[in-house]
Design goal:
The protein is mainly α and 125 residues long. The protein is 80% helix and 0% strand. The protein has one domain. The two termini are 14 Å apart. Keywords: Membrane, Transmembrane, Transmembrane helix.
């Protein structure tokens, strides 16, 4: 479960990051936003799968890491979807975009930490 979760998270975050940067730079049509959002949703589900795995693991259980991953996964779509309503903030909107980017990078970081901890605890290669 952890191997599938981390691979799905890596792929979804990488593709969402690429699309997000292209959208940010206005290099792709706006219709691509839905693909970016779908990838973000899949990344969130993958992160929650990893959080569930580390939170219920018989060996190497870490509830703090699991809760952190769950909260981060919840914040990503809140901030991402909130951007649509917060767009009227003018020049401060870039701050919201940077926060969303950092949350996405944090998702891959916490996902990698979960996978590494789980593998160490269960001696998976």
């Amino acid at each position: 479960m952890v191997r599938i979760g981390i691979m799905a998270l890596r792929i979804c975050v990488l593709l969402a990051l690429i699309l997000g940067i292209l959208l940010w730079a206005d290099l792709v049509p706006g219709g691509i936003v839905m693909v970016h959002m779908l990838l973000g949703l899949l990344a969130m589900i993958s992160l929650w799968l990893l959080a569930f795995g580390i939170g219920t693991a018989p060996k190497g259980r870490n509830l703090g890491l699991a809760i952190g991953a769950f909260v981060l996964g919840l914040l990503l779509p809140i901030v991402g979807l909130g951007q649509l309503n917060w767009l009227q903030l003018g020049s401060a909107h870039i701050v919201i975009q940077i926060i969303h980017l950092l949350l996405g990078l944090g998702a891959i970081g916490i996902g990698e930490a979960i996978a590494a901890r789980y593998k160490r605890a269960n001696k998976l290669a």
